[in-house]
Automatic annotation (TrEMBL):
Descriptive protein name: Uncharacterized protein
Organism phylogeny: Bacteria, Pseudomonadati, Pseudomonadota, Alphaproteobacteria, Sphingomonadales
């Protein structure tokens, strides 16, 4: 099963649970997309696919400029991973594929 699709995600941030929709568009061993939530949408950069594992970066502007680094594993319709947010440490992320 492809890791491509849209996932309803929750990231456990210092500001509470952040809900978002992660869009994964796979092209070979790379991927593009976005993570859209209450603070707007962040474009995925440097997206890589290794089997069912995704890695990526996002440049956050609001509420402060920061580079976010994500890694996640897709298992069927479930995505589980983490987002590293500089000095704020690592935040857990989970989600399910949208039908």
């Amino acid at each position: 099963m492809s890791v491509a699709g849209q996932y309803d995600c929750v990231t456990k941030s210092p500001m509470g649970d952040q809900k978002s929709v992660l869009t994964v568009n796979v092209d070979g061993d790379s991927w593009t997309g976005s993570n859209a939530g209450q603070m707007g949408a962040l474009d995925i950069t440097d997206g890589k696919v290794d089997g069912n594992t995704l890695t990526w970066t996002m440049d956050m502007k609001v509420p402060m400029p920061m580079k976010l680094e994500g890694t996640a594993t897709v298992d069927g319709d479930t995505i589980t991973g983490q987002v590293k947010a500089g000095a704020f440490g690592t935040m857990a992320m989970t989600g399910t594929r949208k039908a």
